[in-house]
Amino acid sequence: MIQHTPLEPSLWFATAAAAPETAPLDGTIDAPVCVIGAGYTGLSTALHLGERGVEAVVLEAEQIGHGGSGRNAGHCTPTFHVHEIPAIRRMLGEPFASRLIERQTNAANLAFDIIRRHGIDCEAVQTGYIQAAHASGAMAKLERRCRQYAEIGKATRLLDRDEAQRLTGSPRFCGGWFHPEGGHLNPLGYARGLARAAMAQGAQVFTRSRVTGIKAQGGRWRVETPSGAVVADKVVCGTGAYTTGFWPGLEQSFTRLGVAVLATQPLSDNLRKTIAPENNTVVDSRRDTSIYKYDKDGRLVTSVFVEGRRGGDAAYTKALMRGKLQWLLPQLTEVDFQYYWSGALDMQPRTIPRLFELAPGMVASLGYSGRGVPTGTMMGAVLADWATGTPPGDLALPVERLQRAPIYMNFMPRVMLAWSRLRDQRLARRDGLDPPPF
């Protein structure tokens, strides 16, 4: 399965700063809070708790950043992935809508602030995010987005055709939207740095310590692993798409969507002067999006949702994505994908973070549906609020009962990808533009 593939083939595994030294849990220990999962959510929770004087214990089934936190493409984008801000307000109502909007739209700033304060070595650059219009008809949505973010105090701006093409290096775009607070990083390096920072604040992190069961013990919780246990007052689950069956129904609250990630050879200085010359993150306006950014060595990193052979067959996917990149960037005459790896994200109908109460004193946060770098970091602060006694009505998100994802979520994300691809192709053809290869 996608979620159990090794990290070793990834660019991030080859280039990330070393992880702090950890070991499996051996024996029974006591803690005020036990955190399950050493990805962004779990490690940010432990870090924020440590900064408040609460020493957490983190249990990780594999290694730090083994799941989506170490496998994603490294974008840090402080927006909502699917819904516009007015839709979030309708969906959540007040006061939770305004609280989540404030947290999510400042989540990239939070992540980069943590990186600076704790000296995390992870190639972090906050150079801005570009959403590029693939057709003139897409500009209306970007104009609305620009107005909505201006209303909450964000200094974003629209790009005309010439500026969008200059900043992206692609002649395929009709304009765009620029958000200066976006950026990118080495995601595995960030996860490892979060772990090191949390440990410096008193957290204990145990790897190769898969949770095998959780049971009540004297008004507290006993979280068991193959060689030990943590007895804690509160338990936080932050395992995302890599959740296993340690709690009934949790794995059924989302569906997994596979993602394949690819990295090219380092580009020449001359090419880098014409392709994303200001080192921005570039994402186009298609639902089945085209996306690229640089790593520290000048490699272009791109990704694609898994759909049949696309993402399932490495040679086929490399050929497809080579054609797609060269369609976007005609000056890129050579594309040698030197790294190829896969991962998964956890999709649920709302596509925004969810905070589920599993039992008194136990919560889970998952279903981010993308935007994992800033959202997981931000949710760590929310979970630390919960763990330190913030009343449910004062949290940034409502505390919900655990809900099973609807059956249609098993196929709807892929159906929507196919449908939106056809829609986006029609929109481009209306402008007399050829669609990209798929």
UniProtKB/TrEMBL annotation:
Could you tell me the keywords of this UniProt record? Oxidoreductase
Annotated FAD dependent oxidoreductase domain residues: 33-386
Which Pfam families did the record assign?
Answer: DAO
Q: Which SUPFAM superfamilies match?
A: FAD/NAD(P)-binding domain
Q: Which domain of life is it from?
A: Bacteria
Entry-linked InterPro entries: FAD-dep_OxRdtase (IPR006076), FAD/NAD-bd_sf (IPR036188)
The answer, when asked if Oxidoreductase is one of the entry's keywords, is yes
Please name the PANTHER family in this protein's record: FAD DEPENDENT OXIDOREDUCTASE DOMAIN-CONTAINING PROTEIN, SARCOSINE DEHYDROGENASE-RELATED
**Would you tell me the protein name for this molecule?**
Glycine/D-amino acid oxidase-like deaminating enzyme
Which organism is this protein's natural source?
Answer: Inquilinus ginsengisoli
